[in-house]
Design a protein that fits this description.
It is built from eleven helices and eleven strands. The protein has two domains: 1-117, NAD(P)-binding Rossmann-like Domain (Rossmann fold); 119-149 and 177-238 and 253-264, UDP-galactose 4-epimerase, domain 1 (Alpha-Beta Complex), CATH 3.90.25. Helix 1 crosses helix 6, helix 7 (184-195) packs across helix 11 (255-262) and helix 8 (206-214) runs antiparallel to helix 9. Helix content is 38%, strand content 16%. With 264 residues, it is of the alpha/beta class. It has helices at 11-19, 46-50, 68-77, 102-107, 129-136, 153-165, 184-195, 206-214, 219-233, 243-248, 255-262, and strands at 3-5, 24-27, 35-37, 55-58, 83-87, 111-117, 138-141, 147-148, 172-176, 182-183, 200-203. The strands form three sheets. A seven-stranded parallel sheet has the order 3-2-1-4-5-6-9. Strands 7-11 form a two-stranded parallel sheet. The structure holds NADP nicotinamide-adenine-dinucleotide phosphate (NAP). NADP nicotinamide-adenine-dinucleotide phosphate (NAP) binds at residues 7, 9-13, 27-29, 38-41, 59-62, 87, 89, 117, 119-120, 123.
């Protein structure tokens, strides 16, 4: 089994690569022995990255309005690849423009899985706007009291590892959440309690959220993200699944446990 992990230096991909030590890590800047140059913006990198590969963890190009054509041309060149595990999102429906077209491409393969995780716990750390809010003491979203089944990226990676390596292909969509649905106010309260640093949540209108996000992102992308906050406000992410337990045999990590180890 030869696995290519696209986005293998990223949030879920790096954790997946740790679970699959023989995997090849796709990155635009290869520095380690197991790295191979892979760039969605440079299709001349596809063939060498795919050489000898029969399974792929596929993170589509990020921030591209219509990623289907380039993903389709990549899959057309992946002649030896039997199994693809696609990282999609619980927030992306089949009818959504852009990423919504990708699951159908993957389902055409003999062996596949589509991962549909909810929002990552890791958004509360690193350079995500929510993480900046944690540092500033005020998380600003357009989500109101809407709840989200926040999921640890390590749990997503564990599901991906099983979907890539289980003898029987999963050939299904996996809706992946953490063990509880929390509002951002709930999450802020947990961070305050665990770290002792006061953090609160302030909800703003969708228009204000789009304007805030547009300070650091293209306007169109900022509007899409603000709309996803509105969807959360209307309950779109208020659900939990047992996928992590069902697929890996281990329960999904709680947000409180994540905060204990990842937010100082
Ligand atoms: N954050 C969430 O809450 C959430 C929820 C559900 C789904 N998702 C999905 O997760 C994915 C992104 O996750 P993330 O924000 O945590 O990002 P990430 O996985 O950290 O993504 C960055 C990775 O993408 C690679 N990359 C960037 N541009 C590339 C290009 N042109 N060609 C090849 N590789 C490229 C980077 O590799 P190099 O820099 O090494 O090249 C890096 O490994 C998205 O598909 C998103 O829909 C996110």
């Amino acid at each position: 089994m030869n696995v290519l992990v696209i986005g293998g230096t990223g949030t879920t991909g790096s954790l997946l690569a740790n679970l699959l030590p023989d995997a090849r890590v796709g990155t635009r800047k290869p520095v380690l022995d197991d790295h191979v140059r892979f760039d969605w913006d440079d299709p001349s990198t596809f063939d060498a990255a795919l050489d000898g590969v029969d399974r792929v963890y596929l993170i589509p190009p990020v921030g591209v309005a219509d990623p289907a054509p380039v993903v389709e041309s990549f899959l057309a060149r992946a002649r030896l690849v039997r199994r693809v595990v696609l990282l999609s999102s619980s927030a992306v429906g089949e009818s959504a423009t852009g990423m919504g077209a990708l699951p159908a491409l993957v389902r055409a393969l003999p062996e596949w899985a589509v991962l549909r995780p909810s929002w990552f716990m890791q958004n509360f750390t690193g350079d995500h706007p929510v993480a900046a809010g944690v540092r500033d003491g005020e998380i600003v979203t357009g989500t109101g009291d809407g709840k989200v089944g926040f999921i640890d990226a390590a749990d997503i990676a564990a599901v991906a590892a099983r979907a890539l390596t289980d003898p029987l292909p999963h050939n299904t969509d996996h809706l992946i959440t953490g063990p509880e649905a929390l509002s951002y106010a709930d999450a802020a309260a947990i961070i305050t309690e665990v770290t002792g640093r006061p953090v609160r949540h302030r909800s703003v209108s969708t228009a204000e959220m789009a304007a805030r996000l547009a300070a650091g992102l293209p306007r169109e992308f900022a509007e899409v993200l603000a709309q996803l906050d509105e969807d959360i406000r209307h309950g779109a992410e208020n659900r939990v699944t047992t996928t992590v337990l069902d697929v890996t045999g281990k329960p999904a990590r709680t947000f409180r446990d994540f905060v204990r180890t990842s937010i100082g």
